[in-house]
Design a protein that fits this description.
Elements (H helix, E strand, L loop, with lengths): L3 H7 L26 H8 L13 H13 L4 E5 L2 H10 L7 E5 L4 H10 L6 E5 L4 H10 L3 E7 L11 H6 L7 E5 L4 H4 L9 E5 L13 E5 L1 H14 L5 H11 L2 H19 L4 E3 L6 E5 L6 H6 L5 E2 L9 E3 L11 H7 L5 E5 L5 H11 L2
Parallel strand pairs: 2-3, 2-4, 4-5, 5-6, 10-11
Antiparallel strand pairs: 1-7, 6-7, 8-9, 9-12, 11-12
Helix pairs in contact: 3-10, 4-9
The structure holds pyridoxal-5'-phosphate.
Length: 368
C-alpha cells in the first residue's frame, strides 16, 4: 500500500481489532465488512455478526438491551425518537382494522401520532378519561376491535399516576395488550413490565439520555412483540444513529444518581411552592406542575426566573420551566385546554441537579 489515495482510505482501519477500549466503542458505520463469502453466509445463519446499520448496529443493540435490563424486560429495541419507539410498539400489536384505546391526557406528540397518522393507516383510535375506569371498560365491551390499551405511567402536565396494575387486569377479560410510556417516571421510579405490561416505551430524549443532547427512543417488553417491533423499525427506517445510542448509554450510567437528586429537589420544590401556588406533585419523579394565583403575572414570572430557563422539554440536569398553555398544549382549543385544566397560569417545572438552596432562591425571587 503506497499511494496517498489508498493509504488515506485504509490505514486507520487496519489496527482497530487489537485495541481494548474501557467503554463500548462507537461503531459509527453504515455497514460492516466480511472477509469471505462464508463469513457473509454466517451472518444469515445467525452467527451474531452485523451487516448494515439500519438493520442492526452494536451501539443501538446495546442501548435496547441496557434499557430492557433496567426495565426487567427480556428484550429491547432502540429507535430514532420516543415517537418512533411508540409507533413501532403500536404497530407490533395492531394493523389496519384494529383499534387502539389511549388515555386522553397522553403526550401531545403521541396524540398527533394517533389522531393524524395511525387513522390514515386504517387503525381506529379512541381516547378516554383513564381516571374513570368504567369509561375504559365500557369502550372495551362496545369495541372488541380494540387490541391495544395505551397510557403513560405519569402524565403531563398534571402528573396523574396511572393505575398500571388495574390496566393489566383488563387482560384477563379482554383480548388486549397493554403499552405504557414510562418516560416521566423512568425505571428508577417504576418498572411497568414487571407489573404485567406488554410494551414499555421511552423518549430517551428525556431522562435516559439526561443531558438534552440526544433525540432517541427505546421500546422494551415481551420478546415476541419486540421481535415484530424490530422488523417495523428496520422496514420503516425508524432506526437510531449509532452516535445517539452511544451518547444515550453514556447518559444512562448516571440515571440513578440524577434521578435521586432530581427527585429530592422536586420534593423540596413542591413543598416550597405549597401556599404560593396550586401544586401537582405525585410524590415520585422530578417534574412539578403548579398554577400561579391570578395575583401573579405569568409573563413577569417567567421573565424573572434568571438562570432557570424557559425550555419546551424536560429532564435535563438543569432546572427548567415550560409553559404548557403556549407549547405542549398549544394546538388544543381554548375550550379543550379549559376542560383539562391547562390554564394560562400553569407552569411545569423540571427539577435539575443544582443545589436546592440556589433553586429555591431563584424560584422565590420570581414570586416577589
Ligand atoms: C418527549 C416525549 C415523547 C416523545 O419523544 P420524542 O423523543 O420527542 O419523540 C413521548 N412521550 C413523552 C411522555 C414525552 O415526554
Amino acid at each position: 500500500m503506497t499511494s496517498i489515495e489508498t493509504k488515506s482510505v485504509h490505514t486507520a482501519t487496519m489496527k482497530e481489532r487489537t485495541i481494548q477500549s474501557k467503554v463500548m466503542p462507537l461503531y459509527q458505520t453504515s455497514a460492516f465488512s466480511f472477509s469471505s463469502l462464508e463469513e457473509l453466509e454466517g451472518y444469515y445463519e445467525g452467527n451474531g455478526t452485523y451487516l448494515y446499520s439500519r438493520t442492526a448496529n452494536p451501539n443501538t443493540d446495546a442501548l435496547g438491551q441496557t434499557v430492557a435490563d433496567l426495565e426487567m424486560a427480556p428484550k429491547g429495541v432502540s429507535a430514532s425518537s420516543g415517537t418512533s419507539a411508540i409507533l413501532a410498539g403500536i404497530l407490533s400489536v395492531v394493523k389496519a382494522g384494529d383499534h387502539i384505546l389511549a388515555a386522553q391526557d397522553v403526550y401531545g406528540g403521541t396524540f398527533h401520532l394517533l389522531k393524524e397518522e395511525l387513522v390514515l393507516m386504517g387503525i381506529g383510535v379512541h381516547f378516554a378519561d383513564f381516571s374513570n375506569f368504567s369509561e375504559i371498560e365500557q369502550l372495551l365491551i362496545d369495541m372488541p376491535e380494540i387490541k391495544l390499551v395505551f397510557s403513560e405511567s405519569i402524565t403531563n402536565p398534571f402528573l396523574r399516576m396511572e393505575d398500571i396494575e388495574a390496566l393489566c387486569q383488563l387482560k384477563s377479560t379482554y383480548d388486549v395488550r397493554i403499552m405504557i410510556d414510562n418516560t416521566f417516571a423512568t425505571p428508577y421510579t417504576t418498572t411497568p413490565y414487571s407489573l404485567g405490561v406488554d410494551l414499555v416505551a421511552h423518549s430517551a430524549t428525556k431522562y435516559l439520555g439526561g443531558h438534552s443532547d440526544v433525540t432517541a427512543g427505546v421500546l422494551v417488553g415481551d420478546a415476541e412483540l419486540i421481535g415484530i417491533a424490530e422488523k417495523r423499525v428496520v422496514n420503516l427506517g425508524l432506526n437510531l444513529s449509532p452516535f445517539e445510542a452511544w451518547l444515550t448509554i453514556r447518559g444512562i450510567k448516571t440515571l440513578a444518581l440524577r434521578m435521586k437528586t432530581q427527585t429530592e429537589n422536586a420534593q423540596a420544590i413542591a413543598a416550597f411552592l405549597e401556599g404560593k401556588a396550586r401544586v401537582w406533585y405525585p410524590g415520585a419523579g422530578a417534574i412539578v406542575s403548579f398554577e400561579l394565583p391570578e395575583s401573579v403575572d405569568v409573563s413577569e414570572f417567567f421573565s424573572s426566573l434568571g438562570w432557570i430557563k424557559i425550555v419546551p422539554t424536560l429532564a435535563g440536569v438543569e432546572t427548567t420551566v415550560s409553559y404548557p398553555y403556549g407549547t405542549s398544549h398549544r394546538a388544543l382549543s381554548a375550550e379543550e385546554k379549559e376542560k383539562i385544566g391547562v390554564t394560562r397560569q400553569v407552569v411545569r417545572l423540571s427539577a435539575g441537579i443544582e443545589g436546592i438552596e440556589d433553586i429555591l432562591e431563584q424560584l422565590g425571587a420570581a414570586f416577589v
